[in-house]
Amino acid sequence: MLPKDDSCAAVEDRAEGDPQHPLILERVEKKPEKKWHTVVLDQVKKHCSCTPEKVKSKILGFVPILKWLPHYKLRDWILGDLMSGIIIGILLVPQSIAYSLLASQDPIYGIYTSFFSSVIYAILGSSRHISVGIFGVLCLLVGQVVDRELALAGYLPESSIGINNSDTLLAGQGNSSNVECDRSCYAITVGATVTFTAGIYQVLMGLLQVGFVSVYLSDSLLSGFATGASLTILTSQIKYLLGLKIPRPQGYFTMFKTWYGLFTNLATTNICDLITSLVCLAVLIPAKELNDLFKSKLK
C-alpha cells in the first residue's frame, strides 16, 4: 500500500490482443506549488504569444468567409444559391418598405438595412441558419421612440406633411428660419441612435453571459408575446391598406387607440389604395396556399 503523501499515476501498457495485461502503478513526484505571480505570467505568455498558427486562427475566426469560401463547390451550389438570392431579394423589397414605415422612416432606409446587413453577415457571420435583417417587432419599438422624439422636437405629425411642406420644414427648431435637419433627417438620426445603443447593450449582455435568462421563459410566455406582436403589426398595417394618414398614438393601449382612429376616419379611405391592397392580397394568399400544397412535388 502506497503512502498517502505520495502521488501515483496509472500507466496502462497493454499489448494489442492481450486484455489480461496487468495494470502497473508508478510513483510520480509531487510538483512544487507555483506562486500566484508565476501562474499569472504563464497564462499571459500562453495567451499573448504570437505564432503564425494563432494569427491564422484569429483571422479566420473574425472573418469566417475566408475559411469556407475556398471550399465552395461552385458547380454544385451556385444555381441553387443564385435562385434563392433572387427570390429573397424580390421579397425583401416590399417587406423592407413596409418595415421602414413601421419604424417611421423613409422606405429607402428599409432597403438599405436589408441589403447591407445581409452583405455584412455573409462576410462576418458564423452560422448559415440565422436570418439577418429587420423584424416587425423591432421596427415597432423603434417607431414608437422616433415618433415620440419627433413630437418633442416640434415636428408635425405624418398626416400633416402633405399640407404644407414649408411649414413642416420650419416646424422643427421652433420659429427659427435656419433648419439644418428636416423631419426625415431627424427621424433617421433618432433611429440610428436607438439602434446603436441597443447594439451596445447586446454586446455587454453577451460579455456578461446574460443569455441564461431565456431558459426561464416558458413556451406560454413566448407564444403570448408572438401573438401580441402579430396583432400589433397587423393593426399598424391597416391604415396603409386603407390609405389613411393617422398619427401613431403614444402611451398605453395604443392598439385600441389605433382601431378607434381607423373607425373614425373610415370615411376618408383612399379607394385606389384599397383596391391595390385587395388585388395584392387576392394574388399573394392563393399563391402561398398553392405553394404549401404542391411544394413537395415541385423542384
From TrEMBL:
Query: Where is this protein found?
Result: Membrane
Pfam families in the cross-refs: Sulfate_transp
Keywords for this entry? Membrane, Transmembrane, Transmembrane helix
The transmembrane segments are: 77-102, 129-146, 186-208, 220-242, 262-287
The answer, when asked if Secreted is one of the entry's keywords, is: no
Q: How does it sit in the membrane?
A: Multi-pass membrane protein
Q: Does the keyword Membrane apply?
A: yes
Q: Name the PANTHER family for this protein.
A: SULFATE TRANSPORTER
Name-wise, this protein is SLC26A/SulP transporter domain-containing protein
Q: Which organism is it from?
A: Xenotaenia resolanae
From the broadest rank down, the organism's phylogenetic lineage runs: Eukaryota, Metazoa, Chordata, Craniata, Vertebrata
